[in-house]
# Entry
Amino acid sequence: MSPGDEQGYTETGQTRTRLPGGDPYGGAPRRTGRSSSRGLVTVVGVVVLLIAAIAFANRGDGSAADGSADKAIRPKAASTAASGTKPVDTRSADIPSGFAHTEQGAQSAAANYAVALGSAEMFNKTERDSVLQAIMTPSAVRSSKAAMDKAYTPDFSQSLGLYADGTAPKGYTFVSRTSPIGTKATEATSDAATVEVWCSGLLGLAGDKSTNPVTNSWFTITMKLEWTAGDWKIIAHSQQEGPAPVPGDDKASSSEDISKAVDEYGGFTYAR
# Structure
């Protein structure tokens, strides 16, 4: 579906060696092997300490001594680790609802709304309107329905091997699923947030004679959310391709296996 420098520094130093007093070519005695070794150990120790100081200054977040320069230019990316917090325990139109009034809640809402926007229900007018009613802000529902009606046309459905109303012919299974891979909030205030959801999707018609087999795609959906009526809702959303990994060497499954998997494997409620 639609649209997620370190600065280092080097230091150089000079070591000044003081020659013994007197005539360097004559009268003064030469240093003994022990004193030369002691001098070498001293120089090596200084170099080791210098390297350790540089490594310490550049460890972790790559900041310098006070961190001010790097902190000004490094992005403040959210942690990619899952929070482990259960997002919701309620549903509206079979879509998770009642998300927390926090940035994390906005990201959880966006992930679940991405699933809804990429579902097979979007190809049926009645079910699509129900989805949009549940996830859009009240002020955006009408315009969103109109925009989606222009996108999900009978011609589009038929190009995928479906009937004009978005249903699959007998003996075939229509597959349209979206799985969020991760989320990122690019903007967030107490009552508004912009969230990007990186997704993988399945789309196609499973059947022995299907000319539109189920294929995989990668895309990123960007959602602008607003806190309204006690929940996060979408004001607007857009989609762009990728980021997509290099395809693997997996052997494609049969249409029967794909149909069986769609029927037997349920979806998830996603949390940030």
